[in-house]
Structure prediction request, 440 residues.
Amino acid sequence: MNELLVLRPDLIEFCVLREGCDTARLPGEKTVVLDGRNFESLASTVHSQGILAVARQPEYEKLDLPRKDPFALVLDRIADPGNFGTILRTARAVGLREVWAVKGGVDPFGDKTIRSASSAQFALSIRLAESLEEMTAALGKLGVIRFFRTEPAEGHSVFREPDLFRDSAIVLGNEANGAGPVPGALPLNIPMPGSAESLNVAQAATVILFESVRRMEKSI
Amino acid sequence: MNELLVLRPDLIEFCVLREGCDTARLPGEKTVVLDGRNFESLASTVHSQGILAVARQPEYEKLDLPRKDPFALVLDRIADPGNFGTILRTARAVGLREVWAVKGGVDPFGDKTIRSASSAQFALSIRLAESLEEMTAALGKLGVIRFFRTEPAEGHSVFREPDLFRDSAIVLGNEANGAGPVPGALPLNIPMPGSAESLNVAQAATVILFESVRRMEKSI
Prediction:
């Protein structure tokens, strides 16, 4: 909520405030104050912060505008709002400026997704494609020359592939079915010495995204 | 469920199977078959796999037994079952054999926790302490010589601290309040070039745990 007020106040249509809550950042002319009981009848969570806002959804970024990051993170129909949101939050933490999503998964602006993302939706651009084919074609036109697709047990190690973050796109797939086919994509592997079969997709994204940070950091 | 059958069949008291589902691995003498309607009335998820089991909870590992891993991952009152479970799943994926938890957070064997963990509970030992003080005292007796505690904006970088995984304990804290105080603990920082204030605790755990894998892998 704070993120919305700080990053995108232009989107706010009006706010509802619980009596007694802090009003410092709220657009006064657009704010209604309600007593506790009336406020709670509107809130969708039990422990609300005491502020609600009705805001317009930001526009999706057009697919043919120049890329803003050295590599593109592509989410192919992620189905769980918690996973999608967590990936956005992590993408923001590592300094990505945009995330590329294929339709058919969760609503990037659903309330659960916004909550898991700590409102990173308002700090990032989101590009939306009808299909993975449309997405990869668009990325190709924008100068992406390598596609990586996570594979469970084989492929280029995320810790050793030198070109992982150079004019590349990294495709992460749906929790149950994985990512769709990408002709010519290189298999990308996250080494797992343990006995687990796979990682949660948000954890896979986190390993990949922070590997990009590590390479900038000159690690040991 | 599969994990329980493969890893800890000794814990199973009895199974309930939906008519028509696969029975290959089930202990026949302990299995009851129900028709669809009766089965669904027992299942707690909408899309059940068609198998239910009543199983005993594994014993917690005693706090004074020798450590099994080069470093200890300590979870101080993690409150969200999804986070706790995801951390267990990730710990298993990187090859840890045990996780150390402080009471006051989620039930490690709650149904949501087991689901998020993909049943990693049955592959890992879990050690449980009454308090963070009891935990650090026990770890000290077992030869842990360094404690790390994640801090948002300062401290030893997870990518550069040479002794991060050597006879150390890494303490991750509650989502709202962070980890409790650990006298003498070194601050551990996950570099975040972006504008986010913090990471989800499960993402922080993932970055740390996979850094231990990377160091074994001789990365670029």
